[in-house]
Design brief:
The chain is of the alpha+beta class. The chain is built from three helices and eight strands; from the N terminus they run βααβββββββα. Helix 1 (16-37) runs antiparallel to helix 2.
Length: 165
């Protein structure tokens, strides 16, 4: 097996609803702060509560995914708020059944199967790949935005499983 190392960082676009919630919480925090400055001591409680909720929601909206392909194993890590890293999934090529573009005809036989779907894309409409993967007990459909370098490295290890765009 040839040893290869490739990594790719994908920034996830936040959902519109979360952007609206963040703006609303920031506005409420600012309004409560201004009211506190004008002599209403009860709104200080609102500043603390809305500020804490804003801080919590802000941390959950800044997501990045790091794809790492190392010697026949594809892993995905979730990076939250550029501070906390969490391993999401590791897929050895021995357990990968198929890697194909999302709109490929090769995926037609998996349309009616009940697969657990994992979405590690940026949600920006870029072309993505679908990886069909056998986990311990569950079969997964993993959506990813792989670059050509990772696809070629996977193709070199398992040419019958990987289909290029």
């Amino acid at each position: 097996m040839s040893e290869s190392y490739t990594e790719l960082l994908i920034k996830r676009k936040p959902a519109f609803a979360l952007v609206v919630v963040k703006a609303l919480l920031l506005g409420l925090t600012g309004a409560c702060f201004v009211m506190t400055l004008f002599g209403n001591p009860f709104t200080l409680f609102g500043v603390v509560i809305f500020g804490f909720i804003f801080w919590f929601v802000r941390g959950k909206t800044d997501l990045e995914y790091e794809y790492l392909y190392l010697s026949g194993e594809l892993s995905v890590d979730k990076i939250i708020n550029r501070q906390k890293r969490k391993a999401s999934i590791t897929m050895p090529m021995e357990k990968v059944e198929l890697v194909a573009p999302t709109d490929s005809e090769k995926l037609n036989e998996y349309k009616n199967k009940s697969l657990k779907k994992l979405d590690f894309t940026s949600r920006s409409g870029k072309p993505s790949y679908t990886v069909i993967f056998h986990g311990k007990e569950i079969q997964y459909r993993v959506l990813m935005e792989l670059n050509e370098e990772i696809v070629n490295a996977m193709y070199n290890v398992a040419p019958r499983k990987v289909f290029k765009a």
